[in-house]
Amino acid sequence: MPMHDIADHPLIASLHDAFGDLVEDGIVDIVSGDESGEPAICEVQADTWTLVLEGWPLESAWIAIDDDVSDVESGRAALESTLDRRELVAMIALDDSLTGSLTNSLRDSGDDLSVALAEMIAAGT
Amino acid sequence: MSVQIVTVPYRYDEPHDGLGLGPDALLRAGLRQRLKAMGIDTGEPVAASLSDDEREDGKLAVNIGKLGRDTASKVASAVETRSPVVVLAGDDTAAIGVLSGLQQTYGAGANIGLVWLDAHADFNTPETSYSGILAGMPVAILAGLAGPLWREAAQLRAPLSTDRILLAGVRDMDEKEEILLRSTDVRILTANEIRTSSTFENAVDRFAMHVDFIALHVDLDLLDPSLVPSASTPSPNGLSIRQATRLVKYVIATGKTAVLTVTSLNPGAGDRGTRSVQSALTLLENTLGSWTGIGGEADADA
Q1: Phi and psi for B273 in degrees, rounded to 5?
Q2: Regarding beta strands B213-219 and B112-117, do their DSSP bridges make them parallel or antiparallel, or are they unpaired?
Q3: φ/ψ (deg, to 5) at A59
Q4: Which residues of B touch A25 (CB under 8 A)?
Q5: A·B CB contacts under 8 A
Q6: How far is it, in rounded angstroms, from Cα B222 to Cα B117?
Q7: Is it the case that residue A39 has pLDDT exceeding 70?
Q8: Is B14 helix (H, G, I), strand (E, B) or coil?
Q9: Which residues of chain A approach chain B closer than 8 Å at the C-beta?
Q10: Above 70 in pLDDT, residue A37?
Q11: In what order do the strands lie in the sheet with A60-65?
């Protein structure tokens, strides 16, 4: 099976387009768990949150933070205190690049925190 | 808050050549202005030097040692202010002068530890080295395993006990170098070991319990070559800026770090050099804000 440069994969390329400045500033890392050329799982890792993306085309996505949340509303409050503006703008750019599949996957996760993030991305706030 | 900056703008004993251009490149790229914007005053940097009168033909190690003696003097003066001290040096050989300066200030018997963040162990001796490159030897020189004339010229009064050396980020060692290294009490953490887990943090916690002062040394080839594409000794699978920031801030947070030395910035090679300079600036900017000097623990999450 031919090996491809994983940097050329469309999901990795979209992640770098959206989060590249934050990577260069040492705020996030983009980590792929697969060196075969097909990133089964990608993570955007920050000090206080991790965004997990699974499959291509995107099959599932969720976000993890240190705090526990009990519903979508508390999830939104937790995210507002965790994410800064540049990080959210990067997620919005990623969702645009993936033609909305990030927000769809976050909603489909059923996880309150991820659903709250989907709403924030969709609202652009 | 203020930070004292000492520069060693040399590659070995050659001023303003190759890596020796790195310190001035950082200053020209606006390091002081960027720190000033963060509320950190730096004052006028002082530069270590080696005069032509002191230089001896054909005695490279001794000449580097003499440069180290002046570095030591500058570092000692800066450390005595109890402000954080940043040494911007061309290559890793500057470390002998930096440690000599700490011994001048705190005494030859002071309990000084060295945290060395580098893709390479720099633990070669003339007997183990395939290349003979002196920049691959400074940790072994500091440990007293080689280079007595070099240490003497730098006025390093006592070698560093190997149980007070922590190497981290290592991913490239020569075979004989590794055998020598693993026969000592030096703690070695590879890049993969420290990338995500708390291995580094746990090691620093234990290390800091046994030393009173820490010299933190960062060779920029710790970073992935994509971030420092002009590195003269690149090694793949390096750390991201975020990961390196985490390590440096954690050592600073011990409250025992007396000096941070940053080396091996090659500002040449066009855009690749520019990219490397930006990475170095970002790393310094991300880390120095949490450092208040010796005494009082800083917050690694700050």
Answers
A1: -65, -40
A2: parallel
A3: -105, -40
A4: 241, 282, 286
A5: 29
A6: 6
A7: no
A8: strand
A9: 23-29, 45-47
A10: no
A11: A28-32, A41-46, A49-54, A60-65
**CB under 8 Å to A3, separation ≥6 — which residues?**
A36, A37
Tell me the two tokens of residue B135: 């920049």
Report whether pLDDT(A3) > 80.
no
Put simply, whether B49 touches A (Cβ < 8 Å) is no
ipTM computed for the complex: 0.74
Q: pTM to 2 decimals?
A: 0.89
- The structure tokens listed for B77 are 């003066």
Q: Please check the confidence at residue B197 and state whether its pLDDT lies above 80.
A: no
Judged against a pLDDT cut of 80, whether residue A4 lies above it is answered with no
Residues 6+ apart with CB under 8 A from B204: B115, B166, B250, B251, B254
Confidence band for A5, pLDDT divided at 50, 70 and 90: low
How far, in Å, CA of B75 to CA of B72, rounded? Answer: 5
Give the range among A30-34, B23-27, B97-101, B136-140 with minimum mean pLDDT: A30-34
Name the pLDDT band for A70 (thresholds 50, 70, 90): confident
Residue type, A64: A
Can you tell me the distance from the alpha carbon of A52 to that of B123, in angstroms, rounded to the nearest whole number?
Answer: 39
- Cβ atoms B173, B181 nearer than 8 A: yes
3-state secondary structure chain A: CCCCCHHHCHHHHHHHHHHHHHHHCCCEEEEECCCCCCCCEEEEEECCEEEEEECCCCCEEEEEECCCCCCHHHHHHHHHHHCCHHHHHHHHHHHHHCCCHHHHHHHHCCCHHHHHHHHHHHHCC
Cβ–Cβ gap B242/A29 under 8 Å: yes
B4-8 and A41-46 as β-strands: parallel, antiparallel, unpaired?
unpaired
Q: Do B283 and A47 touch (CB under 8 A)?
A: no
Residue B107 has which token pair? 């005494």
CA angle B91, B140, B180 (to 5 degrees): 130
Residue B302 pLDDT exceeds 80 = no
Question: Cβ of B123: how many Cβ atoms within 10 Å?
Answer: 33
Which amino acid makes up residue B206? R
